[in-house]
Amino acid sequence: MTLVPLTQAVVLAAGLGTRLRPITDTMPKPLVPVAGKPMIDYGLDALADAGVSRAVVNVHHFADRMEAHLAAYPRLDIIISDERAELMNSGGGLKKGLSLLDPGIAYVMNADLFWIGEKHGSPTNLQKLAGFFNPERMDMALLCVPLERTTGHNGKRDFQLDQDGRLSRYVDGDNPVVYAGAIVLHSSLLDDAPDDAFNLNIYFDRAISKGRLFGVVMDGEWITVGTPDALPEAEAVIARHSTGV
């Protein structure tokens, strides 16, 4: 179990957001406002609420605008991982980002996925995930959500969550879950990773093959905004939560 709060994170924010065009023709996806708040700020706030003080954020699409926004974000010390020259995909971006932090355990967050409706007075979803992570048994711990508590998702079931908390790729089973876009891992997991672009799914599958991919089910409602049509639905869910309806 993690004995001290995690204080460092990597936020993956360099994607092109092609499915969100034409909105992303004029701005980076993480800065698209959802209910008046830039998408990435939901994730940054969640990290700050969990006790994180320093985060690496990778940038590529409209990188100057991302840097300006992140420089003004008040709650975290943010380090830029510059991918202007070449997109590194999820795995390459994560390895490069981790190299800018201290070796050790860290959060990993996707900038375009977030959640609302955590229970007040209880540990946050990220704090629960950190407390669950045990590097002796696990390569990674993933935050997960049941399909019925997702908004804007395409309906895909990512993993099967077994009674002992282990994850496997979903084929069948009675506890399918969606990957909610947050991970806790030890930076040494990627020590053997290539230095160029690669997909983090390689490490998910490697961990599954060793029985070392685990998951925790989050509280609240999970939101993704992949297309322009998903924006009104996301904002309606946020409005319902804010009014308690």
UniProtKB/TrEMBL annotation:
InterPro entries to which the protein is assigned, alphabetical: GlmU-like (IPR050065), NTP_transferase_dom (IPR005835), Nucleotide-diphossugar_trans (IPR029044)
Mention any Pfam family matching this sequence. NTP_transferase
Give the Nucleotidyl transferase domain ranges. 9-112
- Write the record's keywords in alphabetical order, separated by commas: Nucleotidyltransferase, Transferase
Enzyme Commission number(s): 2.7.7.-
Q: Keyword check for Transcription, yes or no.
A: no
A GO molecular function for this record? Answer: nucleotidyltransferase activity
Q: Which PANTHER family match?
A: N-ACETYLMURAMATE ALPHA-1-PHOSPHATE URIDYLYLTRANSFERASE, NUCLEOTIDYL TRANSFERASE
Protein name per its UniProtKB record: MurNAc alpha-1-phosphate uridylyltransferase
Q: What is the lineage of its organism?
A: Bacteria, Pseudomonadati, Pseudomonadota, Alphaproteobacteria, Hyphomicrobiales
